[in-house]
TrEMBL record:
Name this polypeptide is given: TetR family transcriptional regulator
Organism name: Streptomyces olivaceiscleroticus
Keyword Cytoplasm: no
Keywords, comma-separated and alphabetical: DNA-binding, Transcription, Transcription regulation
Taxon lineage: Bacteria, Bacillati, Actinomycetota, Actinomycetes, Kitasatosporales
The organism's place on the tree of life at top rank: Bacteria
InterPro entries: Homeodomain-like_sf, HTH-type_TetR-like_transc_reg, Tet_transcr_reg_TetR-rel_C_sf
Amino acid sequence: MKQTGTGPGRPPRLSHERIVEAALQGDVATLTMRELATRLGVSHSSLYRWVPDRNGVLDLVSEVMVERVLPAEEPGPDDWRQWLARLAWAMHDEFLSVPGYAAHVARPHRHHAESFGRLKGKVVAAFRAAGADMEQAEQSWYVFGLGVVQWLGATGGDLGLGNSAPRFDLYLDTLLRGLPTRTPIEYGQGR
């Protein structure tokens, strides 16, 4: 990552790591570039030399968050469900620990292609390890990803569910028991 100093022998004032660290100190859903520059003790224009805009900051945050949640080992045919459960719990713990992050991720927005592509690839690999073909694995990724993120966004974003939201352990168990779906169940005929 790019580093810049204030003179010979001086430590850099800014780095991508410092920007992410400062961004994670408050509510990322309402973070402004001006607020972030203040947290970092730099000018607003200095910050723009490191990131193009707020979306660039959120991309850096997403890179860090995905790195934190992905299990180190690869999913296998015997442990794919447990692997997905570890991933979901890591998402639960990490996303809810940063104010506004779960709600931000749950809202429609442009996701950071590299970090979320990496997350998607690992989850698709888990469903492939379960025996799903590529189409089923892709569809299962969308169900899993949307299900986990929407639950986290609804509870972490205080969208009115509060204590009436189902417990995450029960929700996740129900979600994972139904995935991957090999044959869709037909409901009704008039569609």
